């Protein structure tokens, strides 16, 4: 039982009534704090879940890769007469789960139908995210998604908070609904892509074979995976149909949709209802268009490309092939172009485009268009003398976002440079070709200058590690390994540093 306040001798009636009112009013607690100012258990669990999410995500992807390796080592997974080592199985599994497309074996000729189905399932799980599939299973058995699992969903779908991905993204409600939305959209788009490709390919192939090939390539294209079942079979390039405009158009649409991500797609659909687009969507669309135009300009200026490499094609086919190559280069890895035969200027352009990659929270890899866009906005603001704010489309970019963009670019550049140097020490070869393979692995792009097949076991392991890191995100492993510190109230004095 609480005691009533006692009026002191030197306290007037008004002061006493005020004290009495304050004593009787309920004490409101700050979020995350108890009444005495100590951190609540919910806040502690909140911080613990955020700290554990990157580590659990790494473990989850590693388990899926290990499971895929065991499946690909099954005798029935390869064609008769084909032997596959543990390193080759692990490399293929990593490439599929990280939706990269680099391979040391030929998918169409070395793997049986069972092996191809295993690869298809691995790249589908890796593209959508195994956490999203877990949420679906939880819903089917009636189990609720825990706080820790909600953070895993957010981390696996590419963002710490789903509400930061788009202005209308919060309408989806819980992260469980977000994961289910991703699954529904993915399956729907892949089903439409499969149907469109099957309608075209059934004119040249038996219905059953055409359906299987259409399904495999629709999933591979939307997941930006780069695996195909025509390479090494003697068929013409581009899925066995040469420079077929219909096939190129369907594949390009699937790649663009997968590289844009569900957040951007949802924001675009919502635009017709509220006439507003998020800053993330505007940056993604703007930079995507800029990269397409700039990439085509570089290729059109490359006389060697059209006078030698594509000389046998008509002008219309040359333009279509160029557009598809630029679109696919940013993480899809499907191409008509024999990349070993194009000029080094085109190869360098493709390398930069792979490094940039696609949108965040999408099937694509790379440092993402948002990171590059934020850095360009910041550089433009600095050039204009607007040091305090980086503004684009009438919105200012938070300082925290700028710092994260710098961190992503720094870690990514250092990783690519370090892996290239180590790879050159382990394998003799042209340093540019090695760097091209490393960037392709980091960006989960799948483009290759033919050097991956020449790598020894150590080189394959290094490329597999790079694919794994690139798929998880440049900062995920750093955050998982680092010891998170509590926010400090201590402010240190600033001191200028000479730059440039």
UniProtKB/TrEMBL annotation:
It holds the Pfam family TrkH. The keyword Transmembrane helix applies. InterPro entries: Cat_transpt (IPR003445). GO terms for cellular component: plasma membrane. Keywords: Cell membrane, Ion transport, Membrane, Transmembrane, Transmembrane helix, Transport. Coiled coil: none annotated. It comes from the Bacteria. It is a multi-pass membrane protein. It is found in: Cell membrane. GO terms for molecular function: monoatomic cation transmembrane transporter activity. GO terms for biological process: metal ion transport. The chain crosses the membrane at residues 56-74, 86-105, 117-141, 178-199, 211-233, 245-269, 281-301, 351-377, 405-426, 461-482. This is Trk family potassium uptake protein. It comes from Caldilineaceae bacterium SB0664_bin_27.
């Amino acid at each position: 039982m609480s005691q009533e306040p006692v009026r002191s001798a030197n306290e007037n009636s008004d002061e006493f009534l005020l004290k009495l009112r304050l004593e009787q009013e309920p004490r409101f607690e700050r979020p995350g704090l108890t009444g005495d100012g100590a951190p609540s258990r919910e806040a502690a669990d909140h911080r613990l879940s955020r700290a554990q999410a990157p580590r659990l995500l790494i473990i989850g992807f590693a388990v899926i890769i290990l499971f895929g390796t065991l499946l690909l080592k099954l005798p029935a997974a390869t064609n008769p007469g084909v032997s596959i080592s543990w390193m080759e199985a692990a490399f293929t599994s990593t490439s599929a789960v990280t939706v990269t497309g680099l391979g040391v074996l030929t998918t169409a000729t070395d793997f049986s139908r069972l092996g191809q189905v295993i690869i298809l399932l691995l790249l589908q799980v890796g593209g959508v995210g195994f956490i999203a599939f877990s949420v679906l299973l939880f819903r089917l058995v009636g189990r609720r998604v825990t706080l820790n699992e909600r953070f895993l969903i957010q981390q696996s779908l590419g963002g710490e908070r789903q509400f930061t991905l788009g202005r209308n993204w919060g309408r989806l409600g819980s992260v469980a609904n977000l994961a289910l939305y991703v699954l529904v959209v993915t399956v729907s788009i892949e089903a439409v892509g499969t149907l469109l490709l099957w309608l075209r390919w059934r004119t040249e192939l038996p219905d059953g074979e055409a359906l299987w090939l259409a399904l495999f390539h629709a999933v591979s294209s939307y997941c930006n995976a780069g695996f195909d079942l025509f390479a090494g079979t003697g068929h013409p390039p581009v899925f066995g149909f040469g420079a077929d405009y219909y096939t190129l158009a369907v594949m390009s649409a699937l790649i663009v949709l997968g590289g844009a991500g569900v957040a951007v797609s949802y924001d675009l659909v919502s635009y017709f209802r509220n006439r507003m687009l998020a800053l993330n969507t505007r940056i993604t669309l703007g930079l995507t268009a800029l990269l397409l135009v700039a990439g085509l300009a570089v290729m059109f200026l490359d006389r060697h490309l059209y006078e030698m490499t594509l000389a046998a094609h008509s002008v219309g086919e040359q333009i279509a092939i160029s557009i598809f190559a630029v679109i696919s280069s940013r993480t899809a890895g499907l191409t008509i172009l024999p990349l070993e035969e194009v000029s080094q200027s085109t190869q360098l352009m493709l390398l930069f485009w792979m490094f940039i990659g696609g949108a965040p929270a999408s099937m694509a890899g790379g440092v993402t268009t948002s990171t590059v866009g934020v850095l360009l906005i910041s550089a433009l603001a600095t050039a204009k003398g607007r040091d305090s704010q980086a503004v684009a489309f009438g919105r200012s970019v938070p300082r925290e976002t700028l710092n994260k963009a710098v961190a992503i670019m720094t870690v990514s550049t250092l990783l690519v440079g370090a892996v290239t140097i180590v790879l050159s020490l382990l394998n003799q070869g042209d340093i540019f070709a090695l760097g091209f393979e490393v960037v392709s692995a980091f960006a989960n792009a799948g483009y290759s200058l033919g050097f991956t097949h020449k790598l020894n076991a150590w080189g394959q392991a290094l490329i597999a590690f790079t694919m794994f890191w690139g798929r998880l995100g440049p900062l995920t492993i750093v955050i998982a390994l680092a010891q998170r510190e509590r926010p400090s109230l201590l402010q240190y004095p600033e001191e200028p540093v000479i730059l440039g």
